[in-house]
């Protein structure tokens, strides 16, 4: 089992280029199933979740070529509608093939998804919304058996609560439905806007009519498409927090500051100096970190995917801070490991109380999920001595070349067996 060895007490300095967005790439890859024309995708991150989604598409009959810079997808011989558990079990995004398969073939058998153990991720919102498009479904032995006897038919759908995955699945499915679909109470994450931009480029008929409402007219023909995936705002946020934590001085390039304005505002409030430019961000960490209270919420709120990293930073704040986790009910699993390093964090329900003014101590640690694993790296970088982080396969699901990028800016980190 591979581990990471991390030595602390280094100030991170230099430049980091942000990779393509994992959370935008996955729905875009699923959406390619709609088309029989060639699709050329660039700026996909080299992470495990993307490899898994590519294997899932291949298992469904997609022909895929990877020349390192461009992924070429051809679905003109893609006819299979069965998405197996062994490919869907490691990532929740596997459920996103359900919408396009139903739209294209009127039937699908898709395993219920896996991913990080950070709380229940029910697909009932997906299924209830799809049923309004004419889908009949049953869940049998962990698989969704779904079919649309008369094909998908446009409908007016209001999501009962904001759901990124359900919004993505329904947008994709409605592109080939008969008639007009209106989706309201949609998630509006930048990754969803990127999916919509990709679908429009494929000649889907989609229009935002208000902040959280989208209208889709079903089409019959799609075009050959080239598309560049947006940069990863969670990766950018992680490195910004790393700079703030280590009194570092970083230039983050290849990212539009507008898509992480909430995160930038919070980092300024805790004391970081930040300059925004067209496609880059300059950040200088402060010796004194101020306390703050945060709650995670759907975009444009503070993202749940940066909650663990932010918690590490607030351990060094001058006073007590609070974080309320509003998205997932089990996303404080990193707390026990941080407390082993000297943090003083208590959890009651969905609220974490973080005592400030602590000094992290190096330790041997266990990663529990993707974002928790990177939070342990940050804590190790801010401690004295050598830390060992186990189960880093979580990390490889979502961060491209993280050791190389951190080494380049002064971290002492290496992968060991």
SSE layout:
Elements: E1 3-7, E2 13-17, H1 22-31, E3 39-42, H2 48-59, E4 63-66, E5 70-74, E6 82-83, H3 85-88, H4 98-105, E7 107-111, H5 124-132, E8 136-140, E9 143-147, E10 156-158, H6 164-174, E11 180-184, H7 190-201, E12 205-210, E13 213-217, E14 225-228, H8 233-245, E15 249-253, H9 261-269, E16 273-276, E17 280-284, E18 293-295, H10 307-314, E19 321-324, H11 334-340, E20 344-348, E21 351-355, E22 364-366, H12 370-381, E23 386-390, H13 393-396, H14 402-408, E24 412-416
Parallel strand pairs: 2-15, 3-14, 6-7, 10-11, 18-19, 22-23
Antiparallel strand pairs: 1-23, 1-24, 3-5, 4-5, 7-9, 8-9, 11-13, 12-13, 15-17, 16-17, 19-21, 20-21
Helix pairs in contact: 1-2, 1-7, 4-6, 5-6, 6-7, 8-10, 10-12
Largest sheet: 4 strands, mixed
CATH class of the largest domain: Alpha Beta
Count of DSSP H/I helices? 14
Large-scale geometry: elongated
């Amino acid at each position: 089992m591979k581990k990471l060895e991390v030595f602390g007490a280094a100030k991170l300095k230099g430049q980091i280029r942000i990779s393509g967005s994992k959370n935008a790439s996955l729905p875009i890859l699923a959406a390619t199933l709609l088309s029989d024309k060639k699709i050329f995708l660039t700026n996909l991150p080299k992470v495990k979740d993307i490899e898994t989604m590519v294997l899932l598409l291949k298992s469904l009959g997609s022909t895929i070529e990877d020349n390192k810079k461009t992924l070429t997808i051809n679905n003109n011989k893609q006819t299979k509608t069965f998405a197996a558990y062994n490919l869907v079990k490691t990532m929740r995004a596997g459920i996103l093939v359900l919408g396009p398969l139903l739209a294209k073939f009127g039937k699908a058998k898709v395993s219920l998804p896996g991913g990080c153990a950070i709380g229940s991720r029910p697909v009932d919102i997906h299924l209830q919304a799809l049923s309004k498009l004419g889908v009949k479904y049953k869940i049998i032995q962990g698989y969704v058996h779904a079919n649309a006897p008369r094909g998908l038919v446009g409908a007016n759908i209001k999501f009962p609560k904001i759901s990124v995955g359900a919004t993505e699945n329904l947008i994709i499915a409605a592109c080939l439905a008969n008639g007009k679909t209106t989706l309201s109470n949609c998630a509006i994450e930048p990754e969803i806007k990127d999916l919509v931009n990709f679908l429009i480029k494929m000649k889907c008929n989609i229009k935002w009519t208000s902040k959280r409402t989208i209208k889709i007219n079903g089409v019959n023909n799609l075009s050959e498409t080239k598309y560049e995936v947006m940069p990863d705002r969670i990766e950018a946020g992680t490195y910004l927090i790393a700079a703030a934590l280590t009194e570092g001085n970083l230039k983050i390039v290849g990212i539009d500051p507008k898509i992480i304005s909430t995160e930038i505002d919070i980092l300024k409030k805790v004391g970081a100096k930040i300059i925004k430019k067209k496609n880059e961000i300059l950040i200088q960490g402060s010796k004194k970190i101020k306390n703050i209270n945060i709650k995670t919420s759907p975009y444009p709120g503070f993202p749940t995917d940066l909650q663990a990293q932010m918690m590490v930073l607030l351990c060094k704040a001058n006073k007590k801070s609070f974080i309320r986790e509003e998205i997932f009910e089990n996303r404080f699993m990193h707390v026990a490991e941080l407390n082993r390093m000297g943090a003083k964090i208590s959890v009651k329900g969905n609220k974490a109380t973080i005592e400030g003014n602590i000094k992290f101590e190096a330790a041997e640690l266990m990663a529990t999920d993707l974002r928790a694993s990177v939070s342990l790296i940050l804590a190790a970088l801010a401690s004295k001595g050598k830390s060992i982080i186990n189960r880093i396969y979580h990390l490889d699901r979502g961060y491209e070349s993280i050791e190389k990028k951190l080494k380049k800016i002064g971290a002492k980190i290496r992968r060991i067996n």
